[in-house]
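Appendix B, record 7
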Amino acid sequence: MKIIYGVVGEGMGHATRSRVILEHLLSSGHEIRVVVSGRAHHFLVERFRGQVGIAFEEIHGLHLAYEGSKLDRGVSLLENLRDAPQGILKNLEVYGKVADGFAADAVVSDFESWAYLYGLARQIPVVSIDNMQVINRCAHDEFVTHDEGLDFLLARLAVKIKLPGAFHYLVSSFFYPPIRKPRTTLVPPILRPEILSARREPGRHILVYQTSAANQALLPLLRRLPQEFRVYGLGQNGQEGNVTLCAFDEQRFIEDLRTATAVIAGGGFSLMCEAVHLHIPMLSSPIEGQYEQELNGRYLQKLGYGRFTKDLDEHVIGDFLSGVDGMRDKLQGYAPTDNAVIRGCLDELLEDIRLGTPRPDRLQAPAMGRWEAAIAGTKEGVPPASD
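C-alpha coordinates (predicted):
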Protein backbone atom coordinates (compact mmCIF):
# COMPACT_ATOMS: atom_id res chain seq x y z
CA MET A 1 0.00 0.00 0.00
CA LYS A 2 0.96 3.64 -0.40
CA ILE A 3 0.83 5.42 2.95
CA ILE A 4 1.17 9.06 3.98
CA TYR A 5 2.59 9.29 7.50
CA GLY A 6 2.34 12.55 9.45
CA VAL A 7 4.58 13.31 12.43
CA VAL A 8 4.18 16.37 14.63
CA GLY A 9 7.54 18.06 15.19
CA GLU A 10 7.03 19.47 18.70
CA GLY A 11 8.64 17.05 21.15
CA MET A 12 10.95 14.25 20.04
CA GLY A 13 8.77 11.52 21.50
CA HIS A 14 6.59 11.62 18.40
CA ALA A 15 9.65 11.14 16.21
CA THR A 16 11.12 8.21 18.16
CA ARG A 17 7.73 6.49 18.27
CA SER A 18 7.14 7.07 14.57
CA ARG A 19 10.56 5.67 13.76
CA VAL A 20 9.44 2.30 15.18
CA ILE A 21 6.20 2.29 13.16
CA LEU A 22 7.91 3.43 9.97
CA GLU A 23 10.49 0.64 10.24
CA HIS A 24 7.66 -1.87 10.54
CA LEU A 25 5.77 -0.44 7.57
CA LEU A 26 8.91 -0.53 5.42
CA SER A 27 9.66 -4.12 6.39
CA SER A 28 6.07 -5.01 5.39
CA GLY A 29 6.65 -3.69 1.88
CA HIS A 30 4.62 -0.48 2.02
CA GLU A 31 5.64 2.68 0.19
CA ILE A 32 5.68 5.69 2.51
CA ARG A 33 5.69 9.46 2.15
CA VAL A 34 6.42 11.11 5.49
CA VAL A 35 5.33 14.69 6.20
CA VAL A 36 7.04 16.07 9.29
CA SER A 37 7.95 19.38 10.90
CA GLY A 38 10.48 20.71 13.37
CA ARG A 39 13.37 18.75 14.87
CA ALA A 40 11.60 15.50 14.06
CA HIS A 41 12.30 16.10 10.35
CA HIS A 42 16.08 16.07 10.76
CA PHE A 43 15.94 13.07 13.12
CA LEU A 44 13.87 10.90 10.78
CA VAL A 45 15.70 11.91 7.61
CA GLU A 46 19.00 10.90 9.18
CA ARG A 47 17.57 7.68 10.59
CA PHE A 48 16.22 6.52 7.20
CA ARG A 49 18.91 7.99 4.96
CA GLY A 50 19.56 5.74 1.96
CA GLN A 51 16.57 3.45 2.52
CA VAL A 52 14.26 2.77 -0.41
CA GLY A 53 10.49 2.95 -0.22
CA ILE A 54 10.38 6.04 1.98
CA ALA A 55 10.62 9.77 1.22
CA PHE A 56 10.27 12.86 3.39
CA GLU A 57 8.58 16.23 2.99
CA GLU A 58 9.24 18.99 5.51
CA ILE A 59 6.12 20.90 6.48
CA HIS A 60 5.47 23.83 8.78
CA GLY A 61 4.13 22.99 12.21
CA LEU A 62 3.23 24.82 15.39
CA HIS A 63 5.86 25.21 18.08
CA LEU A 64 5.85 26.05 21.79
CA ALA A 65 7.90 28.61 23.72
CA TYR A 66 8.97 28.14 27.33
CA GLU A 67 9.97 30.38 30.22
CA GLY A 68 11.89 28.26 32.69
CA SER A 69 9.75 25.19 33.36
CA LYS A 70 6.53 26.91 32.26
CA LEU A 71 4.83 26.99 28.87
CA ASP A 72 4.64 30.61 27.69
CA ARG A 73 1.25 30.68 25.96
CA GLY A 74 1.51 34.34 24.94
CA VAL A 75 4.89 34.04 23.23
CA SER A 76 3.86 30.73 21.66
CA LEU A 77 0.75 32.35 20.18
CA LEU A 78 2.60 35.41 18.87
CA GLU A 79 5.42 33.39 17.30
CA ASN A 80 3.01 30.99 15.61
CA LEU A 81 0.91 33.88 14.28
CA ARG A 82 4.07 35.54 12.97
CA ASP A 83 5.15 32.41 11.14
CA ALA A 84 1.68 31.42 9.91
CA PRO A 85 1.62 33.11 6.45
CA GLN A 86 4.92 31.62 5.32
CA GLY A 87 4.02 28.29 6.91
CA ILE A 88 0.69 28.07 5.09
CA LEU A 89 2.37 28.72 1.76
CA LYS A 90 4.94 26.03 2.48
CA ASN A 91 2.29 23.49 3.42
CA LEU A 92 0.22 24.26 0.32
CA GLU A 93 3.32 23.68 -1.79
CA VAL A 94 3.87 20.28 -0.16
CA TYR A 95 0.17 19.44 -0.63
CA GLY A 96 0.44 19.98 -4.37
CA LYS A 97 3.67 18.04 -4.58
CA VAL A 98 2.28 15.02 -2.73
CA ALA A 99 -1.08 15.10 -4.54
CA ASP A 100 0.60 15.11 -7.95
CA GLY A 101 3.03 12.26 -7.35
CA PHE A 102 1.64 9.96 -4.66
CA ALA A 103 -1.74 8.19 -4.84
CA ALA A 104 -2.09 7.27 -1.16
CA ASP A 105 -4.27 4.38 0.00
CA ALA A 106 -4.14 5.28 3.69
CA VAL A 107 -2.97 8.00 6.07
CA VAL A 108 -1.35 7.46 9.47
CA SER A 109 -1.10 10.47 11.77
CA ASP A 110 0.89 10.82 14.98
CA PHE A 111 -1.14 13.79 16.24
CA GLU A 112 -0.24 15.66 13.05
CA SER A 113 -2.88 17.81 11.30
CA TRP A 114 -1.46 18.18 7.76
CA ALA A 115 -1.72 14.46 7.02
CA TYR A 116 -5.15 14.24 8.65
CA LEU A 117 -6.52 17.15 6.61
CA TYR A 118 -4.99 15.70 3.45
CA GLY A 119 -6.79 12.43 4.10
CA LEU A 120 -10.03 14.24 4.90
CA ALA A 121 -9.88 16.36 1.73
CA ARG A 122 -9.16 13.36 -0.49
CA GLN A 123 -11.41 10.87 1.38
CA ILE A 124 -8.48 8.64 2.39
CA PRO A 125 -8.93 6.67 5.66
CA VAL A 126 -6.87 8.03 8.55
CA VAL A 127 -5.44 5.88 11.33
CA SER A 128 -4.44 7.81 14.45
CA ILE A 129 -1.45 6.58 16.48
CA ASP A 130 -0.50 8.62 19.54
CA ASN A 131 -0.84 8.86 23.30
CA MET A 132 -2.73 12.17 23.42
CA GLN A 133 -6.10 10.70 22.46
CA VAL A 134 -6.30 9.01 25.88
CA ILE A 135 -7.45 12.40 27.22
CA ASN A 136 -10.60 12.41 25.08
CA ARG A 137 -11.32 8.78 24.26
CA CYS A 138 -11.03 7.35 27.78
CA ALA A 139 -12.77 8.07 31.09
CA HIS A 140 -10.72 9.39 34.02
CA ASP A 141 -11.41 9.44 37.76
CA GLU A 142 -11.20 12.33 40.18
CA PHE A 143 -7.59 11.64 41.14
CA VAL A 144 -6.52 12.47 37.60
CA THR A 145 -8.77 15.51 37.17
CA HIS A 146 -8.64 16.78 40.77
CA ASP A 147 -8.44 20.59 40.98
CA GLU A 148 -7.89 20.69 37.23
CA GLY A 149 -11.49 20.75 35.99
CA LEU A 150 -11.20 23.60 33.49
CA ASP A 151 -7.72 22.63 32.29
CA PHE A 152 -8.90 19.06 31.80
CA LEU A 153 -11.97 20.12 29.82
CA LEU A 154 -9.90 22.46 27.63
CA ALA A 155 -7.32 19.73 27.00
CA ARG A 156 -10.06 17.23 26.13
CA LEU A 157 -11.61 19.72 23.70
CA ALA A 158 -8.25 20.46 22.07
CA VAL A 159 -7.55 16.76 21.55
CA LYS A 160 -11.10 16.07 20.37
CA ILE A 161 -10.90 18.62 17.55
CA LYS A 162 -7.42 17.56 16.47
CA LEU A 163 -8.24 14.36 14.53
CA PRO A 164 -12.02 13.82 14.63
CA GLY A 165 -13.66 10.96 12.75
CA ALA A 166 -10.55 8.87 12.12
CA PHE A 167 -10.87 5.31 10.81
CA HIS A 168 -9.49 4.05 14.13
CA TYR A 169 -7.52 5.35 17.11
CA LEU A 170 -4.55 3.36 18.42
CA VAL A 171 -3.70 4.89 21.79
CA SER A 172 -0.32 4.04 23.29
CA SER A 173 -0.38 3.93 27.09
CA PHE A 174 1.16 2.42 30.23
CA PHE A 175 -2.11 3.07 32.12
CA TYR A 176 -5.48 1.68 31.08
CA PRO A 177 -8.53 3.80 31.92
CA PRO A 178 -11.94 2.70 30.64
CA ILE A 179 -12.51 3.41 26.95
CA ARG A 180 -15.47 5.70 26.37
CA LYS A 181 -15.35 6.12 22.57
CA PRO A 182 -15.82 3.67 19.70
CA ARG A 183 -13.02 2.69 17.31
CA THR A 184 -10.45 3.08 20.10
CA THR A 185 -7.80 0.54 21.08
CA LEU A 186 -5.32 0.91 23.93
CA VAL A 187 -1.93 -0.57 23.08
CA PRO A 188 1.27 -0.85 25.15
CA PRO A 189 3.96 1.83 24.92
CA ILE A 190 5.75 1.95 21.57
CA LEU A 191 9.43 1.52 22.44
CA ARG A 192 12.57 1.94 20.35
CA PRO A 193 14.67 -1.22 19.90
CA GLU A 194 17.50 0.18 22.01
CA ILE A 195 15.18 0.32 25.03
CA LEU A 196 13.75 -3.14 24.37
CA SER A 197 17.27 -4.59 24.35
CA ALA A 198 18.53 -2.60 27.35
CA ARG A 199 19.33 -4.63 30.47
CA ARG A 200 18.54 -3.03 33.81
CA GLU A 201 21.58 -2.62 36.09
CA PRO A 202 20.81 -0.02 38.78
CA GLY A 203 23.69 2.24 39.71
CA ARG A 204 23.96 5.16 42.12
CA HIS A 205 23.29 8.17 39.90
CA ILE A 206 19.97 9.89 39.22
CA LEU A 207 19.11 10.73 35.62
CA VAL A 208 17.59 14.19 35.13
CA TYR A 209 16.01 15.27 31.86
CA GLN A 210 14.62 18.73 31.10
CA THR A 211 12.65 19.62 27.98
CA SER A 212 13.46 23.30 28.21
CA ALA A 213 17.04 24.54 28.24
CA ALA A 214 15.72 27.72 29.87
CA ASN A 215 15.21 25.97 33.21
CA GLN A 216 18.59 26.98 34.65
CA ALA A 217 17.17 27.26 38.19
CA LEU A 218 17.40 23.47 38.39
CA LEU A 219 21.19 23.35 38.75
CA PRO A 220 21.53 25.25 42.07
CA LEU A 221 18.78 23.03 43.47
CA LEU A 222 20.55 19.80 42.53
CA ARG A 223 23.93 21.03 43.79
CA ARG A 224 22.45 21.45 47.28
CA LEU A 225 21.62 17.74 47.40
CA PRO A 226 24.09 14.94 48.26
CA GLN A 227 23.27 12.56 45.40
CA GLU A 228 25.00 12.25 42.01
CA PHE A 229 22.98 13.69 39.12
CA ARG A 230 23.45 13.35 35.37
CA VAL A 231 21.50 16.11 33.64
CA TYR A 232 20.37 16.18 30.01
CA GLY A 233 18.46 18.84 28.12
CA LEU A 234 20.01 22.05 29.41
CA GLY A 235 22.27 22.44 26.40
CA GLN A 236 25.47 22.26 28.47
CA ASN A 237 28.35 19.86 28.96
CA GLY A 238 30.66 19.65 31.96
CA GLN A 239 30.93 19.04 35.70
CA GLU A 240 29.55 21.19 38.51
CA GLY A 241 30.21 19.41 41.78
CA ASN A 242 27.81 16.48 42.08
CA VAL A 243 26.09 17.42 38.81
CA THR A 244 27.30 16.13 35.43
CA LEU A 245 25.92 18.17 32.54
CA CYS A 246 25.52 16.00 29.46
CA ALA A 247 25.18 17.08 25.86
CA PHE A 248 22.58 14.84 24.28
CA ASP A 249 23.89 11.59 22.82
CA GLU A 250 21.35 8.82 22.32
CA GLN A 251 23.64 5.92 23.19
CA ARG A 252 25.02 7.61 26.29
CA PHE A 253 21.54 8.65 27.40
CA ILE A 254 20.21 5.08 27.21
CA GLU A 255 23.26 3.83 29.12
CA ASP A 256 22.67 6.41 31.85
CA LEU A 257 18.96 5.57 31.88
CA ARG A 258 19.29 1.79 32.26
CA THR A 259 21.81 2.20 35.10
CA ALA A 260 20.04 5.03 36.94
CA THR A 261 18.69 4.50 40.43
CA ALA A 262 15.83 6.89 39.61
CA VAL A 263 14.70 9.47 37.06
CA ILE A 264 13.64 13.09 37.53
CA ALA A 265 11.98 14.63 34.49
CA GLY A 266 8.93 16.46 33.23
CA GLY A 267 5.79 14.67 32.17
CA GLY A 268 6.87 13.66 28.67
CA PHE A 269 5.23 10.40 27.71
CA SER A 270 8.10 8.65 25.93
CA LEU A 271 10.70 8.87 28.71
CA MET A 272 8.05 7.99 31.29
CA CYS A 273 7.17 4.84 29.33
CA GLU A 274 10.84 3.92 29.03
CA ALA A 275 11.33 4.32 32.78
CA VAL A 276 8.24 2.21 33.54
CA HIS A 277 9.36 -0.45 31.04
CA LEU A 278 12.79 -0.66 32.71
CA HIS A 279 11.24 -0.56 36.21
CA ILE A 280 12.91 2.73 37.18
CA PRO A 281 11.08 4.97 39.70
CA MET A 282 10.41 8.43 38.30
CA LEU A 283 9.64 11.84 39.78
CA SER A 284 7.52 13.75 37.29
CA SER A 285 7.43 17.55 37.38
CA PRO A 286 5.36 18.48 34.29
CA ILE A 287 5.81 21.69 32.37
CA GLU A 288 3.24 24.13 33.70
CA GLY A 289 0.49 24.66 31.15
CA GLN A 290 0.80 21.24 29.45
CA TYR A 291 -2.09 19.21 30.84
CA GLU A 292 -1.18 16.02 28.98
CA GLN A 293 2.08 15.90 30.93
CA GLU A 294 0.19 16.38 34.19
CA LEU A 295 -2.17 13.55 33.25
CA ASN A 296 0.82 11.25 32.70
CA GLY A 297 2.35 12.23 36.03
CA ARG A 298 -0.85 11.71 37.96
CA TYR A 299 -1.26 8.19 36.55
CA LEU A 300 2.39 7.44 37.32
CA GLN A 301 1.71 8.27 40.98
CA LYS A 302 -1.68 6.53 41.06
CA LEU A 303 -0.06 3.27 39.94
CA GLY A 304 2.75 3.65 42.48
CA TYR A 305 5.45 3.76 39.79
CA GLY A 306 6.68 7.20 40.83
CA ARG A 307 5.63 10.58 42.15
CA PHE A 308 4.04 13.66 40.64
CA THR A 309 4.73 17.23 41.71
CA LYS A 310 3.99 20.73 40.52
CA ASP A 311 6.74 22.25 42.65
CA LEU A 312 10.19 20.72 42.41
CA ASP A 313 12.31 21.48 45.47
CA GLU A 314 14.77 19.79 47.86
CA HIS A 315 12.04 18.43 50.11
CA VAL A 316 10.09 16.91 47.22
CA ILE A 317 13.19 15.27 45.76
CA GLY A 318 14.28 13.95 49.15
CA ASP A 319 10.84 12.54 49.87
CA PHE A 320 10.76 10.88 46.43
CA LEU A 321 14.18 9.28 46.86
CA SER A 322 13.27 7.94 50.30
CA GLY A 323 10.37 6.04 48.74
CA VAL A 324 12.00 4.49 45.67
CA ASP A 325 12.15 1.00 47.19
CA GLY A 326 8.36 0.86 47.42
CA MET A 327 8.05 2.16 43.87
CA ARG A 328 10.41 -0.55 42.61
CA ASP A 329 8.16 -3.13 44.25
CA LYS A 330 5.14 -1.69 42.45
CA LEU A 331 7.02 -1.63 39.14
CA GLN A 332 7.73 -5.34 39.44
CA GLY A 333 4.03 -5.84 38.76
CA TYR A 334 4.32 -4.10 35.40
CA ALA A 335 4.95 -6.65 32.64
CA PRO A 336 7.24 -5.19 29.95
CA THR A 337 6.07 -5.79 26.38
CA ASP A 338 7.52 -5.44 22.91
CA ASN A 339 5.87 -3.75 19.91
CA ALA A 340 3.98 -6.81 18.68
CA VAL A 341 0.56 -5.47 19.66
CA ILE A 342 0.84 -2.16 17.80
CA ARG A 343 2.27 -3.92 14.75
CA GLY A 344 -0.57 -6.44 14.70
CA CYS A 345 -3.25 -3.79 15.21
CA LEU A 346 -1.88 -1.52 12.48
CA ASP A 347 -1.56 -4.42 10.04
CA GLU A 348 -5.19 -5.36 10.70
CA LEU A 349 -6.38 -1.80 10.11
CA LEU A 350 -4.42 -1.41 6.88
CA GLU A 351 -5.84 -4.71 5.64
CA ASP A 352 -9.36 -3.50 6.49
CA ILE A 353 -8.68 -0.34 4.50
CA ARG A 354 -7.31 -2.33 1.56
CA LEU A 355 -10.39 -4.55 1.51
CA GLY A 356 -12.83 -1.68 2.00
CA THR A 357 -14.06 -3.12 5.32
CA PRO A 358 -16.22 -0.81 7.50
CA ARG A 359 -14.44 0.93 10.36
CA PRO A 360 -14.06 -1.61 13.22
CA ASP A 361 -15.06 -0.75 16.76
CA ARG A 362 -12.90 -3.58 18.10
CA LEU A 363 -9.76 -5.13 16.66
CA GLN A 364 -9.08 -8.86 16.33
CA ALA A 365 -5.28 -8.86 15.97
CA PRO A 366 -3.90 -12.11 17.53
CA ALA A 367 -1.61 -10.16 19.84
CA MET A 368 -4.62 -8.42 21.37
CA GLY A 369 -5.65 -11.54 23.27
CA ARG A 370 -2.35 -11.71 25.13
CA TRP A 371 -2.39 -7.97 25.76
CA GLU A 372 -5.96 -7.82 27.02
CA ALA A 373 -5.30 -10.74 29.34
CA ALA A 374 -2.28 -8.91 30.76
CA ILE A 375 -4.32 -5.84 31.64
CA ALA A 376 -7.51 -7.63 32.70
CA GLY A 377 -9.00 -5.93 35.72
CA THR A 378 -7.31 -2.61 35.01
CA LYS A 379 -9.41 -1.64 32.02
CA GLU A 380 -13.08 -2.06 31.35
CA GLY A 381 -15.10 -1.51 28.24
CA VAL A 382 -17.75 1.18 28.05
CA PRO A 383 -20.60 1.08 25.51
CA PRO A 384 -19.54 3.01 22.39
CA ALA A 385 -20.48 6.65 22.35
CA SER A 386 -20.63 9.09 19.50
CA ASP A 387 -17.59 11.02 18.34
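Remarks on this record: The chain has two domains: 2-193+338-374, 198-331. Residues 377-387 have pLDDT under 50 and may be disordered.
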